[in-house]
UniProtKB/TrEMBL annotation, chains A, B:
Pfam families: KARI_C, KARI_N. Belongs to the ketol-acid reductoisomerase family. Keywords: Amino-acid biosynthesis, Branched-chain amino acid biosynthesis, Isomerase, Magnesium, Metal-binding, Oxidoreductase. Residues 24-224 form the KARI N-terminal Rossmann domain. Pathway: Amino-acid biosynthesis; L-valine biosynthesis; L-valine from pyruvate: step 2/4; Amino-acid biosynthesis; L-isoleucine biosynthesis; L-isoleucine from 2-oxobutanoate: step 2/4. This is Acetohydroxy-acid isomeroreductase. Mg(2+) 2 binds at D229. Signal peptide: none annotated. Mg(2+) 1 binds at D229, E233. Its cofactor is Mg(2+). It comes from Kribbella steppae. GO terms for molecular function: isomerase activity; ketol-acid reductoisomerase activity; metal ion binding. PROSITE patterns: KARI_C, KARI_N.
C-alpha cells in the first residue's frame, strides 16, 4: 500500500527504485485544511504522556489553534505526568486534561500513546468506552502484533489508522518549533489505514500527520510499519549503534588511544561528522570524504562488518515478524513491575562525555575510517534486509537512515547514549538492551579481528550502486535539510 | 517428582535442604542387572551422532556387552557421521548401523539424539514407524517444549522417558572410559518419566542411566529438566562464562595487563583453580582461599555482579518457560539452512591460548579475586533462581555447579571456548551466542564500573549460608571426585 488518494490535499508522486510512491508534502500552509480533512473529528484525545504523547499533543494543539477542534490529554489516575502536562497548557479547568478513560470516551479520534505493555494490558478497557464510530489512532503497530498473537482484534465499526513519526518524540516537538521559522522542518511520518468503515480514514491520517509537522508523509501497512519500526530501533537506530560504540571505544583504547580520543574516534565521529555527512550528502559521501589510505580501511571495515551485521538484522527481523520479540517485551514488563530497568550508560566511556564536548571546536571533527566503515555497513545491512523483505522505499530510508542521522544521533551528540535510548519507547529501550550487546559481540569477535582481510571489491561496488542512494536523494528533495537544534 | 522406586535396583535417600530425594548410586557392578531392568527391551536404537549420540551409543554398547541387548545407531541417509560410527565399531554388516527410520522401526527403546530442530521437524515421521509399545527416550526436554508450543503430543501407548547426563557428550564418554579403572567416574544424570503405560518406565530409565556410567541418578520432571537444562547452558554453563571472560580479558588489558596475563587472570583462573577448588571443596572455599585484601575485592565483585546476573538469569528463565527461546532456536535453524553458524572464538584473547598453556607449571595457578567474585556471584544467581522456581536440589547443583566444574570447564581448560561451546547441542550453541553477549555487556556496563562500592555484607552472609553448599556436599559424597583427563 504505497499509493493513496485524498479528497482534501494534493498528493504527489515520488520516484523510487523500481516504481513510484504517493506522498504528501507537509507545511504550515496546510493547517487551515486540517478540520476539513478530519471529517467530523472535533475532539482529539491523546492518551499517554511519554515522549511521543507529549510531543504530539502539543504539535496537534498548536496546529489546530483557532479551529473548533480540541486536543485533550488523558492520563491514568495519579499519573506523575500531570504536572508537566499542566505546565504545558493542558488543564482540567478547560477540559484538555483528564482521566484517560473519560478522555477516550469523549473523543472522536483517540490516539493511543501509552506504553506498549500498558496497551497490551488495557486496550479492551479503552475499546469498551469508545463513542460509536470513533477513530482509533496508533503511532506504531505494536498493538496489531499483540492482537494477532493473542487472538484479539480491533472493535468493528471503528476506523483504525496509524501515523508514525520517524523520529523520537523530543525531535518531533523540537523540529516543529523550529518549523515556525524554518518552513519544512519536522519529522517525516508514515500513515497506515487498517480499517476504513466510513471512507475517511486516509484523510484523517493525513490531517494528523500534517498537524504533527511532517515534511512528507508516505503510506505503508500497519504490519510493515510494525516490523520495520521494531527492527529498526533494535538495529541501526539504537541497538546497533550502541553496541558499535561500546566495541569501538574499547578497541581504540586497547590500540593505545587515551579515553577522550577513543570517545572521539567512536561515538563523536558517528554522532557528529558521519551523521552530518549522510544527512547532507548521502552514504557514499562518507567514503568519498576519506583519503586513499583511509578509504581502504573503510572498505576493509565495511567488508568485515556487513555480513555479521546483516545476520543479526535478519535474526531480529525473524523474531519480530514471528512475535517472539513482542513476547519478550511483555515478559520483561512483568519483571520490571518489581525492579527498575537496568542502567545503560554505565560504561567507562560515558564518563568522558563532558571532556569530549568541551574540546569541540578546538579539534577538527573527523570521520574515523574504521568507525565509518562499520557504521555504514550496518546501516546498509538493514536497508538491504528491509528491501529484501519488501518494504516501501520511503519506509526503508526513513527508518534506516533519516531517523538516525536527523533525529536520534543529533540527540546523542548533544546528550549521551542513555538520553537517546531512554527517551524512546519502553519497547525500544528494552530492545536496545537486548540486541545492542549482540552487535557489540559481533563487532568484537568477528568484524574487528578480520580487518586485515582485503576489502571485497564486489561488495563495495554493490554498496556504491545500492538503490537506496537514489531513494534517499528523492526523500531529501521533500525534506529540506534542517539541522536540529538540541537545547 | 524427586522420589521413585525400582523393582531391580536398591535406591537410596539423599538429604537435601528442606527434605530428601531418592537417588540411585551407579557402578559397573550393576551392569549385569541392566537387561532385567530394561524389561523386554532387546534392541536399543540411538538416533543421531552428535556428541551425546556418539557417547551414549558407545557407553550403552560397552555396558551391555555380553548380554542379549543390542545397541544400534541410526543415521540419516548420506550422513557425514557414518564413517566415524563405523570406525568406532557400529557397522551395517552386523546390523548396528542403519537408516534412522529403519533403526527406529526395529528398536524397543528409541533414543532420540538428533538435533533439536531436526527433532522438531521430523518427530512425527519417527513416531509413525515405532513398534507398538516401544519406549521413546530423550536426553532433554526440548521436544516436550516443542510439542506443547505446537499443540502436538507424544503418541499414546508408548512409554516416554528421559535420561539427561549433566555434562557434554565428550565428557560422558571420557569419564566412562576412566571409570573402567577408577570406579565411580562418570557424569551424573537425571531421569524423568513422562508416560508409563506398562509400569516399567522408571526401571528402563534407571538401566539407561546406569549404563551410561552415571555415578548417581536423580529424578525430575521433563518440564523441570527442560527448563533447567536450557537455562543453565545459556547462563553459568556456557553463555555467562563466555560473556564473563570476554569482559574480564578486556578489563585486565585496559588495566595494563599484557595479553597472556589478562588471559590467565580471566579464563585460566576460572577453568583451572576456581573450577578445581569448587569441585573439591565447594563455593565458599574459593573465597576462603584468598588473602584479606583479595577477599574484600571478591566481596565487592560478588556484590556488583549478583544483581545484574540474577536479572539476566530470570530473563532467560522467563523466555524458556514461555517458549519464546525455543521459537528463536527454530527460527535460527531456518536461517542456518543457508549459512553457517557464526564463529565464537574470534576474539583476540583466544589467539594467546597456546602461550598460556605453555606457561602452565612455570607460574602458580592463582585464583584471581575479581574474576572469582564475578563468577561465583553468577553461579549463585543461577542457583537461587532455580531454587525460587522450585527445582529439586540435585538438579540445581548438577545443572549449576557440578556440570560446570567437572565437565565443561575442564574441556575449556584443555582446549578453548569454541571447543567447549561447539561440542554441546546446537540449541546450546545458539543460546550461548544469544545470551553470552548479554552477560558481557552487563559485567562491562553495570558490574565492573561498580567495583568501588563497598561490599554488601548481608549479601555475602547470605552467600556463605546458602543451602546449596549442603546440597553440593551431599552430592559430592555420591560422586567420588575424579579429575577428568582430557586428551
Amino acid at each position: 500500500m504505497t499509493t493513496f488518494t485524498s479528497s482534501v490535499f494534493r498528493t504527489e508522486t515520488m520516484t523510487v527504485p523500481g516504481g513510484t510512491e504517493t506522498i504528501l508534502r507537509g507545511g504550515r500552509d496546510l493547517f487551515p485544511l486540517l478540520p476539513q480533512s478530519l471529517h467530523g473529528v472535533r475532539r482529539i484525545g491523546v492518551l499517554g504522556w511519554g515522549p511521543q504523547g507529549r510531543a504530539q499533543a502539543q504539535n496537534l494543539r498548536d496546529s489546530l489553534a483557532g479551529t473548533d477542534v480540541t486536543v485533550s490529554v488523558g492520563l491514568r489516575p495519579g499519573s506523575a505526568s500531570a504536572d508537566d502536562a499542566r505546565k504545558l497548557g493542558f488543564t482540567e479547568d478547560d477540559g484538555t486534561l483528564g482521566d484517560w478513560l473519560a478522555v477516550a470516551a469523549a473523543s472522536d479520534l483517540v490516539i493511543l500513546l501509552i506504553a506498549d505493555a500498558a496497551l497490551a494490558a488495557e486496550h479492551e478497557r479503552i475499546f469498551a468506552v469508545l463513542k460509536p464510530g470513533a477513530t482509533i489512532g496508533l503511532s506504531h503497530g505494536f498493538l496489531l502484533g499483540h492482537l494477532k498473537a493473542s487472538g484479539g482484534d480491533f472493535p468493528a465499526g471503528h476506523p483504525v489508522i496509524a501515523v508514525c513519526p520517524k523520529g523520537m518524540g523530543d525531535s518531533v516537538r523540537r523540529l516543529y518549533e523550529q518549523g515556525a521559522t524554518v518552513n519544512g522542518a519536522g519529522i517525516n511520518a508514515s500513515i497506515a489505514v487498517h480499517a476504513d468503515p466510513d471512507g475517511h480514514a486516509t484523510d484523517r491520517a493525513l490531517a494528523w500527520s500534517v498537524g504533527l509537522g511532517s515534511p512528507y508523509t508516505f503510506a505503508t501497512t500497519l504490519e510493515n510499519e510494525y516490523k520495520s519500526d521494531i527492527v529498526g530501533e533494535r538495529a541501526i537506530l539504537l541497538g546497533a549503534v550502541h553496541g558499535l560504540v561500546e566495541a569501538l571505544y574499547r578497541h581504540f583504547r586497547l590500540d593505545g588511544a587515551d579515553p577522550v580520543t577513543a570517545y572521539e574516534r567512536s561515538t563523536e565521529s558517528i554522532t557528529g561528522p558521519i551523521a552530518r555527512t549522510i544527512s547532507a550528502a548521502g552514504l557514499p559521501a562518507v567514503r568519498a570524504a576519506l583519503t586513499d589510505d583511509d578509504r581502504d580501511l573503510f572498505d576493509r571495515a565495511y567488508t568485515a562488518a556487513y555480513g555479521p551485521a546483516r545476520e543479526i538484522v535478519a535474526e531480529i527481523y525473524d523474531e519480530v515478524a514471528d512475535g517472539t520479540e513482542l513476547r519478550s517485551v511483555i515478559l520483561a514488563e512483568d519483571r520490571l513491575a518489581s525492579r527498575p530497568m537496568s542502567r545503560i550508560g554505565g560504561s567507562p566511556m560515558w564518563s568522558y562525555g563532558a571532556e569530549v564536548h568541551a574540546r569541540r571546536g578546538t579539534t577538527p571533527a573527523a570521520i574515523d575510517p574504521l568507525t565509518a566503515g562499520l557504521f555504514v555497513a550496518t546501516m546498509v545491512a538493514q536497508v538491504d534486509e528491509f528491501a529484501d523483505r519488501g518494504h516501501p522505499w520511503s519506509e526503508i530510508v526513513n527508518e534506516s537512515i533519516i531517523e538516525a542521522v536527523d533525529s536520534l544521533l543529533p540527540y546523542m551528540h548533544a546528550r549521551d547514549v542513555a538520553y537517546m535510548v531512554d527517551n524512546c519507547s519502553r519497547t525500544a529501550r528494552l530492545g536496545t538492551r537486548r540486541w545492542g550487546p549482540r552487535f557489540q559481540a559481533s563487532y568484537e569477535q568477528i568484524a574487528l579481528p578480520s580487518l586485515d582481510t582485503p576489502a571485497d571489491q564486489t561488495l563495495i561496488a554493490s554498496f556504491l550502486s545500492n538503490p537506496t542512494h537514489d531513494a534517499l536523494t528523492e526523500a531529501a528533495k521533500l525534506r529540506p535539510s534542517v539541522d536540529i537544534s538540541v537545547s
